[in-house]
Write a structure and sequence with these properties.
By secondary structure, the chain is α/β, with parallel strands linked by helices. It has helices spanning 2-20, 33-61, 73-77, 80-91, 104-113, 178-188, 202-210, 256-271; strands at 64-71, 94-101, 118-121, 131-146, 156-157, 166-170, 194-199, 216-219, 230-235, 242-250. The strands form two sheets. Strands 1, 2, 3, 4, 5, 8, 9 and 10 form an eight-stranded mixed sheet that branches. Strands 6-7 form a two-stranded parallel sheet. It is elongated.
Length: 298
């Protein structure tokens, strides 16, 4: 690239001389104004080419570019997700971010179609060809119960406790995701929850639970949402329920900035001890701050 600019510079310097003859020199041996202008412009072009070359090299190395990232609300609520973005911004400050929130199906579809470079979801709801799915960590599930519900007075819940209880599920028709396992484990325990609502986003389920519509089950990192109206309770040991955090991306697009981000997320996930993954969320209180335990019984 500099050689091309140098050739253009030589042509620009010699062309006027051929057309106008030998250029005159000013007093004191100074260059005429046209030559000074050409020299200044040539230097500017060389500087611009150098800067452009540095930018192109940064993009090729994955240190610069634009990343379009999608999240589900529950995936964004886990501390790992903002920590990963913060770490990437610190290591690669020239990468620009375009973020959006959707349900798991929309995030998956966005990655598969190329509209998104990558996405964070809990349980994949579809497996499009070419989309890589990397489980980064897993955390425990909690029951979110209206404070005036009888089950809010218990310290822990068994799946059998959910029998005929009003339950709010987060799932898209044909793509049950995280809650398919909940219903399966309930059936194995002989419990049949009474599904009163199915919604597409976890925050919606917590909004409805806070309004007293029913109870729901959410990842532990959601604890504290509507803390004035909900009690978060542990599920008894052996429930077999957990909530993974999954990174989605297309392998055929894992170049440049995306490759750098995927590698960094992998580093952060590998550095997180498996025994501590479920402890990154805050400890579950026995009752919401400033409230009294609900009475047990009907």
């Amino acid at each position: 690239m500099p050689a091309i600019v140098a050739a253009a510079y030589v042509a620009a310097m010699t062309g006027p001389a051929e057309r106008l003859g030998k250029p005159r020199r000013c007093r004191g041996g100074e260059q005429p104004p046209c030559r000074r202008l050409l020299v200044a412009e040539a230097r500017r072009i060389l500087d611009d080419v150098g800067a452009m070359r540095a930018r192109v090299d940064a993009v090729a190395r994955g240190h610069r570019g634009v990343l379009q990232v999608g999240f589900t609300s529950s995936a964004a609520a886990h501390a790992f997700t903002p920590d990963a973005l913060r770490a990437c911004r610190h290591r690669y400050p020239a990468i620009e971010w375009v973020v959006s929130e959707s349900n798991a199906a929309e995030v998956t579809e966005g990655v598969a179609s190329g509209r998104l470079h990558c996405g964070f979801v809990r349980v994949p709801v579809a497996w499009p060809e070419g989309v890589q799915m990397r489980t980064l960590l897993s955390e425990r599930m909690l029951a979110a119960i209206p404070l005036d519900h009888p089950l809010a007075g218990q310290r822990t819940l068994s799946l059998a406790d959910l029998h005929q209880q009003p339950v709010i599920l987060v799932r898209r028709p044909g793509a049950p995701g995280l809650y398919a396992r909940l219903l399966e484990r309930c059936r194995e325990a002989g419990a049949v929850p009474r599904v009163v609502a199915e919604v597409e986003r976890m925050m919606t389920s917590l909004n409805l639970a806070a309004a007293g519509v029913g109870l729901t089950v959410v990842p532990a990192s959601m604890i504290g949402v509507h803390g004035q109206a909900l009690a978060y309770r542990e599920l008894a040991r052996g429930s077999g329920l957990d909530a993974p955090l999954t990174l989605l991306y297309r392998a055929d697009r894992a170049q440049g900035a995306l490759a750098s981000f995927v590698a960094l997320v992998g580093e952060l996930s590998a550095a997180l001890p498996r025994a501590q993954q479920s402890r990154r969320s805050r400890r579950v209180p026995t009752r919401a701050p400033g409230t009294k335990p609900a009475r047990s019984g009907a």
